[in-house]
Amino acid sequence: MGKTKHTGPIKLPAKPDPKLWVSKVPFGLGKVKPQHIRETAKIAWQNRDNLPYAYRILTQGVCDGCALGVSGLYDQTLAGPHLCTTRLNVLRLNTMPAIREELLHADIDELSRMSSTELRQLGRIPYPLIRRHGERKFSRATWDEAMDTIAAKARAIDPKGMAFYLTARGITNESYYAAAKVARLLGTNNIDNASRICHSPSKTALKRSVGVGASTCNYKDWIGTDVLVFWGSVAANNQPVSTKYMYAAKRKGTKIIVINPYYEPSMEQYWIPSIPESALFGTKLADDVYQVNIGGDIAFMNGVMKVWFEMEEAAPGSAIDHAFVQAHTNGYEQLRAHVAQQDWTTLEQSSGLSRERMREFAQLLARAASAVFVWSMGLTQHRFGTDNISQVANLALLRGFLGREHCGLMPIRGHSGVQGSGEMGADPFSLPGGDISSAVDRSRIEQLWGFALPSWQGDIVGVTLENALLPEEQERKLRLFYTSGGNFLETMPDPAFVREALTAVDVRVHQDIILNSSTLLDAREAVVVLPAMTRYEQPGGGTSTSTERMVYFSPEIAGPRIGEARAEWAIYSDLARRVKPEDAARHLGCGSAAAIREEIALAAPSYNGIQHLRERGDVFQYGGAWLCEDGVCPTPDGRGALLPIELPQLRKPEGHFAVTTRRGKQFNSMIYSDIDPFNEADRYDVLIHPGDAAPLALSEGEAIVVYNRFGSMHGRVKFAEIKTGNIEVHWPEGNSLIPKGVYEPHAGIPEYNTAVIVEKAETYHAHKDTRYVEKRIEELEIEAG
């Protein structure tokens, strides 16, 4: 895709720059901020029983936290060691001992009283478990007993009633590939993964706009770009090492812009522990913050383009890179006409920003010779997520910010395994190196694998859960649900529905390293728990793909092993051989990690090179430094598509707030503290602007109820610098407010935003059994469903 190769890490400036300091008070004493030294000491104490192994994981393995791609303590962006508290918090999952037997086989009601945090802290799952319908405890099972139970069910049902799901928990490309192949060998296309729930609109939009499904640039492109924009992304919290890249960018004169409903403290300033100057005095990160309404990004971007086209009328060439647009895009005139008909009043109301603020941002980008746009779930997890991302692509194409140094489009990944998941074929729309809807890709994979693929369209995981409640006669009724990690009770909208769906499945399989609240739910016939290895334990090592398309090799690391745990790819292979022994013998392969990598290189052409990764530190980047290099897109005509994007109907009735979910001190659904170190918010604090609280007579810390027709949440008022008319609640605590069954039409991502009423708790409870509340609920019927 690109001919230029990544040039490797660069050094940070040696001299400090006091202009970037937050405060001359050392270590930010007295400020609300993460306490990195204290946190590191706490984590070292947690791992005291296995410190040598913990050290080897940190210095030899590829980070199983976020997807920045740190191998050992080093990456491809900056010279010097990198370590963050996210990686340190995840470390204990790899070093803790097995769960004690008296706890593992305790009464299920006793275990169910524990939170997922408490269950995680019990330790690793040491051997297979089974709990049949009516039994109150897990029983130890042999591998043969457990696998035969699953295989018998798989043989007995229509493959359309079987589904697989893989989370992002340190899962390697090898495991994703084996799962994708095994699912199709067993006759089902119902396979999905955590990446698709987070970033499927990114892949879908980028493919339709510029022909690729991944970041077009590198982290190095942040350093020295004129403008670095974070859109709906709190990288400082979710990918802490990225603050080091931001520091390097600031030292090169880059302006950092944040677009988010909430003025995120961690994106404004940060104390970066691995840079002495920043650890002592902090670093000012954001140069400006544009606080949009939840869901107001499309209007904001239409406003920016409207300013550009107005600038062009006054002075041609002042805003649009016409040479790039004419040589490398289609649809310019249609987009210009579409934006021209947008009226400023509607754009201001929808975006929540004034015309003047939109003009400021437009002029900043118009003056810039380069820019990188970075985004995350603040843009993707909407019912119009794909349109959000295509709007970002429109901005980049109009300015020529694509296919060259310091320019690009980057959907930043939150987990180290997820970039490779769809590229390995582990979702209902993908095959290794292609799309299941493509006749060419289907034929190519069928020829390589030696068997016919299922011809029907598989379901996304949200629909899979809904299928559990279908009538018995329906062929797609979910009867066997096989999950590798994941906790749907704490990740999907409408937890009450999720509980009902999971308990309605005949046989539910949890392939995991720890217990969580979903594992403990009943099933109609049996719950089977299979102990998995971490990536550091897997024989032959494994690979993962970073946000910037770096494919890293993580070796098997010597150390203690947990009971009977097995490599995840090996468990999938075992299942195939038990369900279809003859077909598996002829076609499966997947006999070792190295053999899987050899096959990946054939199945996914862009991954040619993965077969050569064998030693610690081995890495290659597929596609070159920049996808769409020199503006040439891998589309049929080599051009990007400028797409007119309509404003979404935000559907916020009078007296309601737009609500979205936010992360605190957590990694995915794994919560590590009840208090957010950046703003001191409790997990049940509701972030609300003081100006919105005053008319409701709400004071800081007061008990409130947030509710709509989907559910309710009890919380407390937390004053915050959030856009008026919007509130934020923590995820997953606020999931009860989010409707099920609302999916983005192009990519199938669940929406995690809706409209709610906020009331004093005493008012809510005083009237909850009267027609007053019934009337308020009726008002919500016009809300998004």
UniProtKB/TrEMBL annotation:
InterPro entries: Asp_de-COase-like_dom_sf (IPR009010), MoPterin_dinucl-bd_dom (IPR006657), Mopterin_OxRdtase (IPR006656), Mopterin_OxRdtse_a_bac (IPR010046), Prok_molybdopt-oxidoreductase (IPR050123). Keywords: Iron, Iron-sulfur, Metal-binding. Residues 124-577 form the Molybdopterin oxidoreductase domain. Residues 659-755 form the Molybdopterin dinucleotide-binding domain. The keyword Hydrolase does not apply. Pfam families: Molybdopterin, Molydop_binding. PANTHER family: PROTEIN YDEP, RESPIRATORY NITRATE REDUCTASE. This is FdhF/YdeP family oxidoreductase. It comes from Paenibacillus violae. The lineage of its organism: Bacteria, Bacillati, Bacillota, Bacilli, Bacillales.
